[in-house]
Design a protein that fits this description.
The structure holds three protein chains of three kinds.
Chain A: H1 2-33, H2 41-59, H3 62-86, H4 91-114, E1 131-132, H5 146-154, E2 157-158, H6 159-177, H7 179-189, H8 191-196, H9 201-227, H10 239-249, H11 254-274, H12 287-302
Antiparallel strand pairs in A: 1-2
Helix pairs in contact in A: 1-5, 1-6, 1-9, 1-10, 1-11, 2-3, 2-4, 2-9, 2-10, 3-4, 3-9, 6-7, 6-11, 7-9, 10-11, 10-12, 11-12
Chain B: H1 10-35, H2 40-52, H3 55-80, H4 88-106, H5 112-141, H6 145-168, H7 191-195, H8 209-226, H9 228-238, H10 240-245, H11 250-267, H12 270-277, H13 288-298, H14 303-326, H15 333-348, H16 354-365
Chain C: E1 4-15, E2 18-29, E3 33-38, H1 44-51, E4 59-64, E5 67-68, H2 74-79, E6 82-85, H3 97-102, H4 111-129, H5 144-157, E7 162-166, H6 174-189, E8 193-198, H7 201-207, E9 210-215, E10 218-224, H8 230-238, E11 256-266, E12 272-282, E13 285-290, H9 297-304, E14 312-317, E15 320-322, H10 330-335, E16 338-341, H11 345-349, H12 356-359, E17 371-372, E18 375-376, H13 378-391, H14 408-420, E19 426-430, H15 438-453, E20 457-461, H16 465-471, E21 474-479, E22 482-487, H17 493-500, H18 506-510
Helix pairs in contact in C: 8-17, 14-15
The chains are: A mainly alpha, B mainly alpha, C alpha/beta.
């Protein structure tokens, strides 16, 4: 029973830490399936976390905070789009640039505006998102097995958490069941086919990148306004890259993305939990090993030793009409 | 791949356009300074004063520049082969082992001039080893080197934290770092070099590895432009098709280039570990690996461009620290923004102003210099 | 209503200084199959791309069904009832047939309704035109013939009344091609108008009602197919060109230096591009390979020179086999005396960003005479380059100038100087004068003859028939991956043109 409770606690924190990963990885999915590689997920998420935290602190409204987060993230996404679609620049270079701009600007602006060493002020009630209890959570909490699962694991999360998980089937539906999704997948595989079908490749890709911006914005808002109550400098701490790794690990498929993010989130939750504790059978595992595992797994996958991660065929290549 | 742009005079291509891109990057940075309520001009004046106004400032500027020369060269060497090594940060971090281990072994029994060569070799080998796997995976398995090097940065970070916290930390110490090196593990400072110009470097850790960095820059130039290997690397980078035609072994060249790139990034570890802190601490690389990207793009992957670009970033680091005394709003994080803007404007959007400039030169010299456009095939 | 489905009036299009289409007039009757024939680079594809809205004409008007129409993008073309089957299929390879057909014509934001409708419509089209294909099959798993069928279905699904097919049989087997022609006949009987772009005379004669001939960017003639002949078309296509005068004595062939035996080359799509090709080249002779581009010459060249792997067969260099089906190594072949002037000068033969002297050692950069140990001997390299510049009259005579700044002809001379000055026993040359100015052509031709007279074995591949005729001692014609005939260079253009166009028994046909 003790193990069961521990498991519930670990799973609960798995869900908590997986949410920004899922949002950011889905963001990357929209962009990369359209043929625009994005290693700037980290930067967009960070900038959004700051914008959300700052706007919510000033206005006292979580919704305005969310709006600001999305706005800033979309702006950075448009910079990336301009560089890589309109200017046909190097998508990797552009992504790297956006990460640095976000990393520096959040600290400088944060310090200038709030003077708290790069933090935004602690968000009070109403300025941050609160958790929601599912119906009857309290009533059935004491039912064995099902009770803890329902009340502790499924209930008591932020609306954004439920939104993130809802976005997984939604993204699948968009991708495979809508016109937008069909064209988005096509433009990432063979932009020539899209162009000859009378659809603008540029506009399609811009829209995909904007979707990416919106989702990164929500991911950032979750970090500074739900998971914690305020922005702390560098708070994404590589989550954007873990999300990128999860996206590759999931072979650019939405449902796989969720599982990859949950796996990586679980490793994260375990590593926090296990600090100093011994694992049955294995003994003590260094925390750092658990932290590095998502990256190691992704490299192994990329190397083609377990399955093969085949990126969208036209990914990373600016579209130029053939002569 | 080459974009269909009309030809421009070389000085425009290599001088004017990069300069305009750089100026735009700094103008946007100036807007950020304005946004936080300070004067960009005064900030610039403080920056230059802080970096070059006195001996100690210059010492610090050149100390930082040393790091960036190494990492900039690392990125540039890979660029010449058409590879984007984002892993300089991790390669330098792991290379810390290559520096620290020989020193920990030898510092109490040998003088610095014996330990230094061992540390140089150690750092280069460790950095190269960390770059080998991404290079090998790119060459043999087609795994994109950008993604694998990013992953390896994080793996490096975990490995190093583990080693410093659990293995290398001396018993009884709380701080996750090695013991402080004895005299044999400390590089002499270059106070005499600036003393020639009548400057006193004060407490600045400007040390011998700066000269090593200059030697490395020269060697990179020599290898890339003056050896058969460099010829093959450049052929590969410009045109993989031509490399195939010329019978150049593609995967061999990719791996060798990544080894060189990793080795150069690795040598950066000498400067902070052996030259300044005299121990290996957590996170000693402090982003220098990433600054190398901006330095290489700005220096157009040529040592002659990289050294001044590295000094410029050294100036930003040192001057940035100074500004924060006068302008508390502006910390060293300003440099991160500038770094990003330089990468954006000198890298991803490098051709933004080209059409306008081409039109300008076309109208300027239209009648006088009516060269036919290259034939379209 | 008009009798003509398409009328083009005075279409002009230039790319830089190259005028791809000059004052083109074309009228295509409704409900007919109209062929457009011409050599490579005659401007056929450019013209059709203008019609499909991929490029804008610099001048001229387009009339569709009698109405003046501005076609500013493919959308406008589709709206005007024009469908196009591209030479390189515009299909998303990991999509299903159905998804490809729907792309751009989905009906509504949500696919469900559209899918059902597309399925029905597809079934109707399949029945009507005998175009069976499994709507749920993934494109990359289908053979090319079926992929092409999907392209046709795509156009029909969009309600195309005019169907343009650009070199549709290039990737098809003869049986598949025959099936395609039956489909085209069927479409015609349903009242569709078809424009067939090809360089194969056999196809023109077999299926078209009318045929227009293009040559060097101009529309030179339009004929009713039943009233013309392959000979007339071949002549119109190639034109009566004055044979370039090259001083050339009779060849004195010696030993076999290069022998190709049963060579087959498969490309990445799994299509055999070179099929069981055998021939030999002797010392002191030039063997020319004629043919329209895309008939396997490039793959043949690359397999012989070690750049591409062959699937079957042997190649003997000086009697010794080369690893043609394994890891052949261009560097090793060079050491063994095989010099190669590649077809793709700009991307393969040269590194345009290198300076002239650097390019003058490409492939030979491991020769000790250019090296000091591991270092490049820059002085020796520049000196060597300067010698070649003088000998080959390369202008401007500056070994340190960036290669991109040389003209096409001078770039080609850089490559030729590099390959010929090694005095190799075997020289393989692809497209020696493509994109080269007239002045340089004569010089290059002379050099090639000199190599022959010096006892070298020369294999020459060119799509310029007159070049082959004026240089070669023996002419092999390649068509569809095979060598379909060997002729002497004195053979009439008509006969060679027929062979190049895939007409078998060309001799009888020409008589």
């Amino acid at each position: 029973m003790e193990y069961f409770d521990t498991l519930i606690v670990i799973l609960q924190s798995t869900v908590r830490v997986s949410v920004p990963l899922i949002l950011a990885a889905l963001a990357g999915l929209y962009s990369e399936r359209s043929g625009i590689f994005d290693i700037g997920l980290e930067g967009k998420m960070l900038a959004a976390a700051f914008a959300g935290g700052a706007a919510a602190a000033v206005t006292g409204s979580a919704l305005i905070g969310l709006g600001a987060a999305i706005l800033v993230s979309v702006f950075l996404a448009l910079v990336h789009a301009f560089a890589s679609i309109t200017q046909r620049g190097n998508q990797i270079v552009s992504g790297v640039a956006i990460n640095f701009i976000a990393l520096g600007a959040t600290v400088i602006l944060g310090q200038a505006w709030f003077r708290q060493g790069g933090r935004t002020p602690q968000l009070g009630e109403g300025a941050r998102f609160s958790t929601v209890e599912l119906p009857f959570a309290a009533e059935i909490a004491n039912v064995p097995i099902l009770g803890p699962i329902y009340s502790n694991l499924l209930s008591g999360h932020f609306l954004l958490t439920y939104l993130a998980f809802a976005l997984v089937p939604f993204t699948w539906w968009v991708l495979y069941r809508t016109r937008f999704g069909l064209r988005l997948r096509a433009v990432g595989e063979n932009p020539g086919a899209v162009d000859t079908a009378g659809i603008s490749v540029t506009w399609m890709r811009y829209r995909a990148v904007i979707c990416c911006g919106i989702l990164c914005g929500i991911a950032g808002a979750y970090l500074s306004m739900a998971m914690t109550a305020g922005f702390v400098k560098g708070m994404t701490a590589g989550k954007g890259f873990i999300a990128l790794a999860a996206l590759i690990f999931a072979k650019w498929k939405p449902v796989n993305v969720m599982f990859a993010c949950l796996l990586f989130g679980f490793l994260d939750a375990m590593s926090i939990r296990m600090q100093g504790n011994e694992l049955p059978l294995i003994g003590e595992v260094p925390v750092q090993f658990m932290q590095a595992l998502p990256y190691v797994l992704t490299v192994v996958l990329l190397a083609g030793f377990i399955g093969k991660a085949i990126p969208p065929k036209a990914g990373g290549v600016p579209y130029v009409k053939e002569r | 791949m080459s974009a269909p742009y009309a030809k421009l005079p070389a000085w425009v291509d290599y001088g004017l356009i990069p300069l305009i891109n750089l100026v735009v990057a700094f103008l946007v940075a100036g807007l950020v300074v304005l946004a936080v309520g300070e004067s960009p001009l005064r900030a610039a004046a403080l920056l230059i004063e802080g970096a070059f106004g006195y001996g100690e400032g210059i010492g610090f500027t050149l100390y930082y520049a040393t790091n960036f020369i190494f990492t900039g060269l690392a990125v540039a060497v890979a660029f010449h082969c058409g590879l984007f090594n984002i892993g300089g940060e991790g390669q330098a971090y792991v290379a810390g082992l290559g520096v620290a281990l020989p020193i920990l072994w030898l510092d109490q029994i040998m003088p610095w001039y014996v330990v230094f060569p061992a540390a140089i070799v150690g750092s280069a080998i460790a950095g190269a080893a960390w770059a080998f796997i991404p290079g090998w995976l790119q060459a043999k398995r087609g795994s994109h080197v950008v993604i694998t090097t990013i992953m390896f940065n994080f793996i490096a970070s975990s490995v190093m934290v583990y080693l410093l916290v659990d293995v290398l930390k001396p018993a009884g110490s709380m701080a996750p770092q090695t013991r402080t090196f004895a005299e044999g593990g400390q590089l002499p400072r270059l106070d005499w070099l600036l003393a020639i110009f009548g400057l006193d470097i004060g407490g600045a850790p400007f040390n011998l590895s700066f000269l090593l960095a200059l030697v490395a820059a020269f060697v990179v130039w020599l290898v890339i432009w003056r050896t058969k290997l460099g010829y093959e690397i450049r052929t590969m980078g410009h045109s993989p098709k031509a490399a195939r035609y010329a019978g150049i072994k593609e995967s061999r060249i990719v791996i060798i280039t990544m080894l060189m790139s990793g080795g150069l990034a690795g040598m950066m570890a000498l400067n902070p570990i052996m030259g300044d802190q005299h121990r290996m601490a957590l996170d000693f690389v402090a982003g220098a690996g990433f600054v190398g990207i901006a330095v290489a793009l700005m220096g157009r992957s040529h040592p002659v461009g990289i050294v001044p670009a590295a000094i410029l970033f050294g100036m930003l680091y040192q001057g940035g620290a100074e500004i924060s005394f006068e302008m508390p709003q502006i910390s060293r994080d300003m440099i991160t923004i500038i770094q990003g803007l330089v990468i954006l404007f000198a890298g991803a959007m490098e051709n933004m102003f080209r059409p306008a400039i081409t039109t300008f030169f076309a109208t300027l010299g239209g009648a006088r210099d009516a060269k036919p456009a290259p034939a379209v095939e | 209503m008009s009798d003509f489905a398409i009328e083009l009036k005075g279409i002009d299009k230039s790319f830089g200084l190259v005028r791809a289409n000059k004052d083109i007039n074309l009228s295509v009757r409704k409900g007919t199959i109209h062929g457009i024939i011409g050599e490579n680079g005659a401007g056929k594809s450019t013209l059709m791309s203008i019609l499909y809205g991929f490029y804008q004409a610099d001048d001229g008007d387009i009339f569709i069904d009698g109405e003046k129409t501005v076609i500013k993008d493919p959308n406008a073309a589709i709206a005007s009832g024009i469908g196009m089957v591209h030479q390189h299929f515009m299909l998303v390879e990991n999509f299903t047939v159905l998804e490809n057909i729907m792309l751009g014509a989905e009906e509504s934001q949500i696919l469900t309704a559209g899918i059902a409708k597309a399925r029905d419509e597809l079934r109707r089209l399949e029945d009507e035109y005998e175009l069976e294909v499994d709507p749920d099959a993934i494109i990359e798993e289908l053979p090319v013939g079926l992929q092409q069928r999907v392209e046709i279905l795509k156009a029909l699904y969009r309600g195309a009344e005019i169907l343009i097919l650009d070199e549709p049989t290039g990737v098809l087997t003869p049986a598949e091609a025959d099936h395609l022609f039956r489909i085209l006949e069927q479409l015609k009987s349903e009242g569709k108008t078809i424009v067939l772009i090809t360089h194969k005379l056999r196809e023109i004669m077999a299926v078209t009602d009318e045929v227009s001939v293009m040559r060097r960017g101009e529309m030179v003639a339009t004929r009713t197919t039943s009233e013309t002949s392959v000979e007339e078309l071949a002549e119109l296509m190639v034109g009566r060109r004055v044979l370039l005068q090259v001083d050339k004595g009779p060849a004195t062939p010696g030993d076999v230096l290069l022998a190709v035996e049963g060579l087959t080359v498969r490309d990445s799509r799994g299509v055999d591009m070179v099929k069981d090709v055998s021939f030999e080249v002797r010392a002191g002779e030039i063997v020319g390979i004629a043919g329209v581009a895309g008939n396997g010459q490039s793959e043949l060249l690359q397999a012989i020179t070690g750049i591409r792997r062959g699937t079957k067969g042997r190649v003997l260099l000086n009697g010794e086999p080369i690893r043609v089906t394994g890891h052949a190594d261009p560097a090793e072949l060079r050491h063994r005396g095989l010099a190669h002037v590649p077809e793709d000068r700009q991307h393969m033969g040269l590194v345009l960003k290198f300076d002239e002297s650097e390019n003058s050692i490409l492939g030979y950069h491991d020769d000790p005479k250019y090296l000091n140990g591991l270092f490049l001997n820059i002085d020796a390299i520049r000196k060597d380059a300067a010698d070649k510049i003088e000998k080959y009259d390369i202008r401007p005579p500056n070994p340190r100038l960036k290669t991109a700044n040389f003209s096409g002809g001078n770039q080609q001379k850089i490559v030729l100087a590099r390959e010929m000055e090694r005095d190799p026993p075997v020289l393989v040359i692809g497209q020696p004068t493509r994109g080269v100015d007239v002045g340089a052509i004569e010089f290059i031709h002379k050099r090639i003859i000199e190599m022959r007279d010096a006892g070298k074995a020369v294999l020459l591949v060119s799509v310029e028939l007159d070049e082959i005729r004026s240089l070669a001692d023996r002419v092999l014609v390649m068509f569809d991956g095979r060598v379909v005939g060997e002729r002497s260079p004195e053979t009439g253009e008509g006969e060679l043109g027929l062979l190049m166009a895939g007409v078998e028994d060309a001799k009888e046909a020409a008589q």
